[in-house]
Design goal:
Organism: Rhabditophanes sp. KR3021
CATH architecture: Up-down Bundle
Largest sheet: 2 strands, antiparallel
Number of strands: 2
Number of domains: 1
CATH class: Mainly Alpha
Strand order of the largest sheet: 1-2
Order of helices and strands: HHHHHHHHHEEHHHH
Protein name: G_PROTEIN_RECEP_F1_2 domain-containing protein
CATH topology: Rhopdopsin 7-helix transmembrane proteins
Oligomer: single chain
Shape: globular
Strand content: under 5%
Length: 347
Amino acid sequence: LCRTIADILITIMFEFNLSPDYIKKYYPCDYLTPEEWEQEKEPNILLGSIYFLLGCVFLSLYVPVIYVLSKKEMLRVSSCYPLMLTLAIFDSLTLCVNGISLGIFSIRGDMLCTSFVYVYIAGIGAIFGWCTCTMLCVVLAFNRIVETINTKWSDFLFRGKKVIFWLILCFAYGLFLGLFTPPIVFTSKHYAVFFDPYVSISKIDSNNTEHYTNIPHAVHNISICIVLPSLYIFLCAYIIFKYKSVSTNVDLTTAQKLLLLQSSLICMMTFGASGLYLYFQFFPVTEALMLLAQFFWILAHGVGSCIMVFINPTIRKFVLKEIGSKIKTIKGTNSVSTTTLRRASQV
C-alpha cells in the first residue's frame, strides 16, 4: 500500500511538462473560444512598464559584473567567484522572465491561452531560474562559511574544478524542477504568476485543481526560508564573535558591516519572495500582496547586481578599473583619430 501511494505521488508530482499529452490534459485552451480569451485580457501599461524597466536596470548592472567576474584573475582569487559568476548569469536570465517578459505580458494583458507558447515557456523558465538561483545562494553561503572557518575544508570541497560539481548540482536540480513539476504561469488578472492558469476566470471550472499545487516547489521554498537565513546568521555571528574575542574595540570594521548589509539584503528579498509565493499558493490573498510578491521576486534576482556594483569592495574596484581603462582607450583612440585628420588636412 505504501509503495502504491509513493508511486502515485511520484506520478502526480513529477511529469514531463513539455509532453503534448501533459499539456493537453492539464492546460487545454478549449474552455473558451479565441474571441472569449481575448475579452478576458486586462492590459496594464503602467505596471508592465515598471516590471520591464526594473528588469532592464538590473540587467544593465549585471553586464559589467559578469564581465569582471569572468576574468581569469578574478576566478583564481577565491572559489566563491565561480559561484558568484554563475549566480549572476542565472539571475540575469531569470530577470529576462520575471522582469522583461512579464512586463511585456502585463502591457499586452496576456495570460496562458492568449499567448500560449511564450507564457508557458516563461513559466517553466521561472521555476528553473528560481530554484537554480536560490540553490546557488545556499551553496555560496555554505562556501563562505567553510572558507571562513577552515581553509583546508574549503580546498577539499571547492578548490579548482571541484566547484564545477556544485554548479552542475544546482543546475541539474533547477532543471529537474523546471521540467518535471507544474510551471508557474502569468495571468493579467493579477499581473503575477500562479500554478493555476485559470485563476479568477469565472467562466472556467477546471477539474485539475489538485494538480496546480506544486508540492516540490513549496518544499523548496520552505527549505530556502529556513536554510538561507540560518547560514547567513551563523556566518555573521561567527565573524562578529571571532572579532570580538581578539579585539578590545567594540566597533565592527567596515568589511564586517558590509557583510552584514549584503547578507541582510539577500536574505530579506529571497525570504520575502519565497514566503509570499508559498503563502498564496495555499491561501487567498489580497491584490496588494500578489504585487508585493512579484516585486520581491524581481528584487531577489536583481539585488545581487546592486550588491556587487555598489557594496562589494573587491568587485566594485575591478568594475571601476575596467570602466576607467575603457574610457582611456576610447579617449586615446579619439585623440589619435583627431591628430591623423589634422595632419591629413594640412597635406
